[in-house]
Structure formats: C-alpha cells, structure tokens
Design brief:
Length: 435
Amino acid sequence: MLRRVDLTNGTAGPRALRRILPRAAVDVNAALAAVTPIVADVREHGYPAARRFTEQFDGVDVADPRVPAEAIEQALNDLDRPVAEALAESIRRARIVHEQQRRSDVTVQVVPGGTVAERWVPVDRVGLYVPGGLAVYPSSVVMNVVPAQAAGVPSLAVCTPPQKEFGGRPHPSILAACALLGVREVYAVGGAQAIALMAYGDEDLDITPVDVVTGPGNVYVAAAKRLLRGVIGIDAEAGTTEIAVLADATADPVHVAADLISQAEHDPAAASVLVTDSAELADAVDAEVRRQVALTKHHERVSLALTGPQSATVLVADLAQGLEVVNAYAAEHLEVITADAAAVAARVRHAGCIFVGANSPVSLGDYCAGSNHVLPTGCTARHASGLSVQSFLRGIHVVEYDAAALAEVAPKVIALAEAEDLPAHGAAVAARMPR
C-alpha cells in the first residue's frame, strides 16, 4: 500500500534528501490571504466579528462564547468513569515530567562587586488552543495546560471550537479535561478567529488579551499564528501530524503497521513514513497495513493518508543510511524499532520526540507517557522543540555592579563606545566616575 522510495543505491546529501523524502504539502502562506481579513475584523470589532466567522465556518451562532462554570463541572460529572480516570492519570504523569523542567534562577559573580543574574519569569497570561475538527482532543488540553501551570502562569484561557451537536458549546470531553485541570475560563471559539480573539481580547465581554498562544490546529490556525507573531508569542505553526519509523529486520510488522495507521487516523494529509534496511520487513508491513486498514474504524481517512504523496516506505542500504534519512526528515514523532534501539536512537539529532524500542509506540506519548505531544512538524524539528515549561517562561538578566566594579571596567566600556562612535554611551559611564 505504501509507495516505495529506494535509496539503496547511494546516499543522497541533505539537500537532495529534503527534496526526495515524502512530506505533507502545507502552504501556510496561501492560507494567509484568507486569514488576514478575519484577524483584521476581530482586531477592529472583537467578539461580534468572531461570532460571525463562527457561524460561517462552524454553522452555529454562539451569542456568548464563555462557557459557564457549571457546564464545565457538569461535563466532568457526566464523563464516563474510565475516560475520567484515564485523563487523571495522563495529567498525573504529565505533571511528574513537566514540573522537573522548571529552571532555577542563577546568579553569577563576574567580578568582585559585579553580578549578572538570570531570573525565569512566567508570562502573565496564555491562550491555549484545542482543535476540534475530524476528532476532539481532550488530551491536547492536558498537554497545553500542564506545562503552563508548572511554569507558574497565573492566568489561562482555553479556546476550542463550538460543536453543533452540543448546542454551540465545546465537546464535553474537552470541558471535562478543563475541569480536572482547574481551568474555568473556556471559550467556544475556534479557527483563526479564536487566535485573533485571544490576541486582541474584547472589552465588552471582559476577555483580556493574552501574551502567548500555544496549541495545534489546522492550516488557518497556523496562518493566524504566523500573522499575529509579535502581537503575541507562539509555540509553533503546527502542521499535519507525521510519524517516521526507523526499523530493521527485528521489528514486528504488526507493530509497525499499527503505528503507521495510528497517525494516519488523524487526517487524510497525515504523513506515515517507514525507513528500513529490510525489504522483507517492508513487504510484511505492506501486507499488515492492508489487513489492518480494513479493520479500522476510519479506514477511508487512513487509506487516503497512507496512499498520499506524504507517506512512503524508504528503503536504505543500512541503519547508518537510515539515520541520515530520519535526521533529514526530522519527524514530529520518530519510532526506533531496531536491535539495540537505545544506541541507535542516541544517534538521532532531529526529531520532535523519539520513541525507543518495541514497547514505546507514539500512542503512548499521545496520552500517558508523561511527555508532551505538542511537537514541531514539517521538518521544523531541525530547529524547534516541543511544548514544555520553557515555552511559558522568559529569562530576564539582572545586572548589579557596585561603584568599584564599575570603575574597574569603565575604561573598557568607554573604549568600546568610542570604537562604535557612540560617545554618549561612554559618557554615561564617565559621569559616574569620581571627579
């Protein structure tokens, strides 16, 4: 079922690999044309503009986007107990991991009497976007809220699309996750209009603008984040999900096929890529994919994703070449299912999250590993990280020199100021020297 890309005859360089390897075609720039007037309208008119776009795109008219606190609590009360317990466990494990990410303030004595400290300060307010398109994602509530809370952010707001079948309110499972996390400020707004509303706020409805927006979404959400970067901080322009599996002949084709299908389930544009040095494994995975796709609930969506240009099996000569391929691909999710998987995984430099060995599937990370599933896509793992506590912190340098320490370095400061033809800089130091 998966098309084949055969690289066994030679190693391509990084530039060629980026051109050859399958990748979802996501054109955020093209979406900017559609998003720009939406953002401008919300900036000018606040929620009334967002309301019009919600009715246009989601088919529901939401007079007041704020979800009542009692509706949030009721959603938790009505949630099936096994799901509630699973969400609680996901939260518990995520807190264990993310609370250890909090950086400590550091003070360095540069010279006697002269110190530079770095303080880590959380942003004042964040907007957390939770998508709701082909599927609903209470797990994304967990992945966004937990690191923000661990960072000490004092004010959190969640935006998520309204659901027609629930009277214009968000999906109950999303509200239940908010209740478990203690989030009480939830708005039934989705898409680009939600990002704009979080960025600019609304005085009449007492919606305070946020400092940072995080969370995945469709291409229009990504375009709105790009457009508003600078007005707000953003985590990333998250695109369609992707998985790469680096596997050798020791891998179980049943596992590999199941994992490729699991991510294809998200979206017809989702990318599933197998990189292997075993043609026999590739053939066995193809057979398993055909068998398992026929049994899966969303088989049409999965089939479209697996047969699309963004998905493929890449045959390589050996694992060394396989590592070159996965490092060039820089997958959002990378599974390493090989002999001595830990040693192979240690050689991976570019991935959003690495899943090591046969018992660490991506689905574990999506829900209950303790890691974060908001990860860089579209090859951005070469330079970007997944969501973490650091996404909500700012490092502030604090400089404190006494008179003697300033006097000792004053000639150097003055010399550099003169070299840059900025004599007033030097004069600001000279004015403090003894007369």
